[in-house]
Write a structure and sequence with these properties.
single chain, mainly alpha, about 110 residues
């Protein structure tokens, strides 16, 4: 569905930016990685809520693909759906980026 693609659009650059930063030993990736993780996290949270509560949240204006954004590809225990995995990944990336940035700032003082 379209929402899945929007989440991927936020996730894939994080990998590319982090890889380049590792190669170049660049410590200033926080300003790029953190906003992407927040944006992706918000998109995946919205998508998750839309799949769990399909009549409450509606992205009909966003989802124009034939595959509905409210129908999960799979569902475990009634609430574990793919956007939840995406949200967890974005939250973990955001936390790691913030902790790394905080550690960098402590080292500079």
């Amino acid at each position: 569905c379209d929402m899945c693609w929007y989440e991927r659009i936020a996730m894939y650059p994080i990998f590319l930016i982090a890889t380049i930063a590792l190669i170049r030993k660049d410590d200033d990736t926080f300003r790029y990685v953190f906003p992407l993780s927040v944006i992706g996290g918000l998109l995946s949270l919205w998508h998750f809520l839309e799949q769990i509560f399909p009549n409450t949240f509606s992205a009909s204006s966003i989802c124009a693909s034939p595959r509905s954004c409210t129908i999960p590809a799979f569902q475990w225990f009634g609430w574990i759906v793919p956007p939840l995995f995406s949200w967890v990944a974005f939250v973990m990336i955001g936390i790691c980026a913030w902790l790394f940035h905080r550690q960098q700032r402590k080292g500079e003082q």
